[in-house]
Amino acid sequence: MSALRTEEFLVNMGPHHPSTHGVCRLLLTMDGERVMHVEPYIGYLHRAIEKICENRTYAQCIPILDRFEYITAMSCNYTFALGVEKLAGIVPPARAEYIRVIMLELNRISSHLLWYGTTALDLGAITPFLYGFRERELIMDLFEMTCGQRLTFNYIRVGGVSRDIPAQFVPKCREAIKIIGEKMSDYEGLLNENPIWRARNIGVGILTPEMAVGYGVSGPALRASGVKYDIRKNDPYGYYPQFDFDIPTRSNGDCYDRYIVRLEEIKQSLKIISQALDGLPEGDFKAKVPGVFKPPAGEVYSRIENSRGELGVYILSDGTTKPVRVKTRGGSYNQLQVLPEISKGLLIADIVAIMASMDIIMPEVDR
């Protein structure tokens, strides 16, 4: 009797599939129910953001970069403004720096709440999605109150911010972070010990520290593998050195640890915002920047710790009103590239869990 012979076959996951977190195509080589190989296909969402910025003035680049990574668009605005300020020697006022920290950390929380809800939804749990979006609305209301927008903001500018926070912002922000802090026990209670959640995440998609560093993985995915690296601490920028906060890490590098790290990061962001509100100084919210702005010729690379990892912008100036070269770097690209390495021998359902746990967002990959 001859041995049973199996034959590999190909399965397309995406580009329309919602669990690919954007317009991404994963070509899966299958042996029965097991995934033998994953090959990501990108480029469906390419918008030439970098090239567009090279044909705009520095001020006009900021609303374009809002679209680079729209989940935490404040970070995109800030990274570019930080680079231009380094290039031109501009020092934003203290009040502007405090406001920036508040906005960046609020945006980090809103990103993690969106991730919490959509990841649970990908794995079949509806209630966490409703919980996460309920509290995320509190942050969106604060953004709308401040700059009129809820997703892409065009708020952080070269030299500071476009306008001061309204009088009601501080009490509303304190109320929001108090509510979110109290709800953290609900988020953890829904999933932390849930047997289905644990079975779908523990031991799945293990990313070793060596592999994470080798692929340039950053952010929560890196820290969940035991590497305590956060640009806010390791290469400080802005006023972050003035705030007391911890860098959550885990050691297993699986989907569950990536989940835990993000929940812990929400708590640390709440801590930073509370300190910034307590110490918010009076004064100007923007440095004086010429209407026709021409930074000196030179090059600079600015980077910050985004909710998905390192977010960087390289700017080359020739001394005119427009940059010669703009090159962006987002964390999602590296997280996507590591997917084939940590998915071998798993099931399609595990690919969904891994993709979600990496918090990959395709606009950041394609640019």
Sum this structure up briefly.
With 367 residues, this protein is α+β, with helices and mostly antiparallel strands.
Give an account of the 3D structure.
The protein is an alpha+beta fold. The chain has a single domain, classed as Cytochrome-c3 Hydrogenase, chain B (Orthogonal Bundle), CATH 1.10.645. A hairpin with a 2-residue loop joins strand 2 and strand 3. Helix 4 packs antiparallel against helix 11 and helix 6 packs antiparallel against helix 11. The longest helix is centred in the N-terminal third of the chain and has 29 residues. It is globular, with a radius of gyration of 21 Å. The N and C termini lie far apart (56 Å).
The CATH top-level class label: Mainly Alpha
What is the strand arrangement across the widest sheet? 1-2-3
Per CATH, the superfamily is: Cytochrome-c3 Hydrogenase, chain B
Low-confidence stretches: none
Based on helices, strands and strand pairing, what is the structural class? alpha+beta
* Main sheet specs: 3 strands, antiparallel
Number of helices: 15
Report Rg: 21 Å
> How large a portion of the residues is in β-strands, by DSSP E?
5-15%
CATH-level-2 architecture: Orthogonal Bundle
Mean pLDDT: 93
N-to-C series of helices and strands? EEEHHHHHEEHHHHHHEEEHHHH
| Gross morphology | globular
Number of domains: 1
CATH topology grouping: Cytochrome-c3 Hydrogenase, chain B
Spatial separation of the terminal alpha carbons = 56 Å
* Helix fraction by DSSP (H/I, runs of at least 4): 40-55%
Query: Could you give the count of β-strands?
Result: 8
